[in-house]
Write a structure and sequence with these properties.
Number of helices: 7
Order of helices and strands: HHEHEEEEEHHEHEEEEHEEEE
Distance between the termini: 33 Å
Strand content: 25-35%
Structural class: alpha+beta
C-alpha cells in the first residue's frame, strides 16, 4: 500500500496535453503549481524539454535564484548547479536525508531539479513530508518541541576538501554559514506546521550540548523517515521535480554504479522562518 504522501504527490503528474514548462506559464497554471507545492511539498512533471534559459526563466517565476556557493555549474550558467555522477564515481550528491540550504538565515524556498541524463534503472529520489511527520507526533512531544530552536550549519558538510567530490563540489572556504531556526515552523505559504530539522545540516538544539541533542534528534529523524511519510520518484529524461525545502526532505538513491546521471538544479530563494 502506498503512503498517504505518495498518494497525494502522485495526483500531480501532468499528462498530455499537461503543462509545458518551456513556455510562459499562464497565471492560473502558475497559481496551481504554487498552491500544490505549498500544500503537498513536491510537484512532479514528465516529458519536459527545457533549454538552460527556459529553466532559468521558469525558476524566476517563483522567486529570485540562489546561486550555489559550492556546486559546479553548467557552462555559462552559474544559476544552474550540476548534480552529476560519472560511471567511475562511487559517491553521489545528496545521498542522505536532507533539505537544501537550511544553514542559511533565510533558507531556500524550493529546488527545481531537471533530469538531463539518467541511468537505465536506479537513481530515484525519495521525498519525505515534514507536515505528515509533525502531524503524527504525540501532543506531548509537540509541546516539547514548540519552543525549541536548532542550529544548522554548512561547515561540517562543505567546509573541507572532498577528494571524492573533486570537480563537483568545492570552495570549502565559503562554508561559513550558521543559522538557528525553530524546530517546528509555520509554513509561510500554507500556514501549516512542519518539522524543521534534518540529518544533513542540523547540529543540535539551541542551549543544549551535542550529546544532549543527539537522542531526540535521532528519534525525530527515524520518525520523519518512516515509509508512510515518504514517496519515491522514478526519473526519466525530461522529468522535473520541484520541491519545497521548508516542508520536505529528499534523498538521492545511489544504486546505479557504472552509469552516468546528470541533473540540472536551480534553487529559489526563500524567507526567514518562524514558529
Amino acid at each position: 500500500m502506498r503512503s498517504r504522501f505518495a498518494q497525494l504527490a502522485a495526483r500531480w503528474v501532468p499528462r498530455s496535453p499537461g503543462v509545458t514548462l518551456a513556455e510562459p506559464l499562464a497565471a492560473d497554471a502558475l497559481q496551481t503549481i504554487r498552491r500544490t507545492l505549498a500544500d503537498r511539498g513536491v510537484v512532479f512533471f514528465r516529458d519536459q524539454q527545457l533549454t538552460p534559459e527556459q529553466h532559468i526563466a521558469l525558476a524566476r517565476r517563483f522567486g529570485d535564484i540562489n546561486v550555489n556557493r559550492f556546486f559546479a555549474h553548467a557552462e555559462n550558467y552559474p544559476e544552474i548547479a550540476l548534480v552529476a555522477k560519472e560511471p567511475h564515481q562511487t559517491r553521489n550528491i545528496g545521498g542522505g536525508w536532507h533539505t537544501d540550504h537550511s544553514y542559511d538565515q533565510a533558507p531556500a524556498m524550493g529546488s527545481i531539479l531537471y533530469a538531463r541524463e539518467v541511468p537505465p534503472s536506479g537513481g530515484d529520489t525519495l521525498f519525505a513530508s515534514m507536515y505528515a511527520a509533525y502531524d503524527a507526533l504525540s501532543d506531548g512531544l509537540k509541546r516539547t518541541l514548540e519552543d525549541l530552536r536548532a542550529l544548522h550549519s554548512s561547515r561540517h558538510v562543505f567546509g573541507m576538501e572532498r577528494p571524492d567530490m573533486q570537480g563537483r563540489i568545492g570552495k570549502p572556504e565559503l562554508a561559513t554559514q550558521d543559522a538557528v531556526h525553530p524546530v517546528v515552523i509555520t509554513h509561510p505559504d500554507s500556514g501549516r506546521k512542519a518539522l524543521y530539522v534534518n540529518p544533513g545540516f542540523t547540529l543540535g538544539f539551541e542551549g543544549w550540548t551535542v550529546e544532549e541533542s543527539r537522542p531526540l534528534l535521532e528519534y525525530l529523524y527515524g520518525h520523519a523517515a518512516k515509509p508512510e511519510f515518504t514517496c519515491r520518484f522514478v526519473w526519466r529524461t525530461g522529468s522535473i521535480a520541484f520541491w519545497d525545502n521548508r516542508s520536505t526532505w529528499h534523498y538521492a538513491v545511489n544504486d546505479y554504479h557504472g552509469e552516468r546521471r546528470l541533473m540540472h538544479r536551480i534553487t529559489v530563494d526563500g524567507c526567514a522562518l518562524g514558529g
